[in-house]
Amino acid sequence: MKVNQLELEQFRNMESLSFSPGASVNIIYGDNAQGKTNLLEAIWLLSGAKSFRGAKDGDLIRFGAGRARVEAAFDCQGRRQQAKIVWDGKKTAWLNDILQESVSSFAGIFTAVVFSPSHLGLVRDGPAVRRKFLDTSLCQILPRYIGMIGRYQRIVLQRNTLLKDISRAPSLLDTLDVWDEKLAALGGAIIRMRMEYTRRLQIQANEIYHGISMEKEDFSIAYRPAGLAIRPGQDQQEIAGLLREALARGRGEDLKSGFTLTGPHRDDLEITIDGRSVRAFGSQGQQRSCVLALKLAESRCIGELLGENPVILLDDVMSELDQNRRDYLLNHLSGNQIFITCCDKGYFSRLEQGSIFHMENGKLSQE
Ligand SMILES: Nc1ncnc2c1ncn2[C@@H]1O[C@H](COP(=O)(O)OP(=O)(O)O)[C@@H](O)[C@H]1O
Ligand SMILES: [Mg+2]
To answer: By alpha-carbon position, which residue is closest to atom 4 of ligand 1?
Structure first.
């Protein structure tokens, strides 16, 4: 994956910006609130995912303007492609000048991995953030996963509505079996895919963690399905069977609470160092290294599975790392096109190859 040209129009604080990044490391430096993160956000949106800042579509349009555009020419799978998104009250996407049904069709075509300070929530926050981490990668790797996860979420919502309705109309209890069956079948497939992806991620993340920490600590991640005892190697059907049993066992609790308490929407990814939870016991430095290792492992897994290395977006993470970790990063990411934002370009005095850009008030200039 390589972005050759990026054009922004009325996007955030950038009135009009044309950017020709280099093929390897691109440093974007500048003072606070100049538009560095906005630029990475624009690149990220081309992956078809939602903003990593949790922005709503309307937030992306420059204050006072009615329409924003992000357009990129990039090389992928050996050919030049073009992606364009326009926001003007609604969102419209084109790939190679062909109108798309939605931006999610960019998934798996324009691939990117992003790490910003807000991603530290990956180790610090609750399980929802970690499920989203797995799901975001899986959506890029297997575009059909996007539909699966959407359908699954609707099933859970409908089952929850039914659980609440049953307390008022007990005769509806008969219809619960149908929803249990749907939830178990699709949930089993989702758990299986997440577990397989976690296995691949673990191999890469462990190696990277050793590299960045330069310590002999043992880093490990494990998928923890809520209320299920899954043995290694169990297939989708077997997991669906376990889920069906767990739903039956938990039916009383579910009816009491009005919520479905078992299934992949309750699962977690456990991250440990030397067998101890990083969330509970990790130092700040360990937590940061863990997230970085997970993000870089994600980029390797996507590269391995799609045969194309994703673009890596590192927002403001350099100031938090010591020189050794910075050097490790720069030396081990050479197979990817990388965009790094920071306030001080001094961190990169030892950068041999790469391009340096200055961002000021939404305008970018190359040095
Ligand atoms: N829709 C918008 N229209 C105009 N300016 C915006 C919009 N959204 C954010 N901004 C401005 O962008 C600036 C922040 O840009 P950001 O990329 O986060 O800065 P940084 O260079 O620190 O990463 C702020 O000044 C903010 O007011
Ligand atoms: Mg920023």
So the answer is: 13
How many separate helices (H) and strands (E) can be counted in the chain?
10, 15
* 289-319 tens-digit pLDDT: 899 999 999 999 999 988 999 999 999 988 7
- How many CA atoms, within 13 angstroms, populate the side-chain half-sphere of residue 49? 24
Does any ligand 1 atom lie closer than 6 A to the CB of residue 13? yes
Tell me which residues of the chain have a pLDDT lower than 50: none
Atom 2 of ligand 1: nearest residue by CA position: 12
What does pTM read for this prediction? 0.89
The pLDDT of residue 328: 80
Ligand 2 centroid to Cα of residue 329, in Å, is 19
Q: Residue 184: how many CB atoms within 10 A of its CB?
A: 24
Residue 35 Cβ contacting ligand 1 at under 6 Å: yes
Task: Say which CATH architecture domain 1-111+310-367 belongs to.
Answer: 3-Layer(aba) Sandwich (3.40)
Q: Is 24 in the pocket of ligand 1 (CB under 6 A)?
A: no
On whether the 119-307 domain is CATH 2.60.120.620, my answer is: no
C-alpha of residue 59 to centroid of ligand 1, in Å: 10
The label of the residue with tokens 């992949």 reads 264
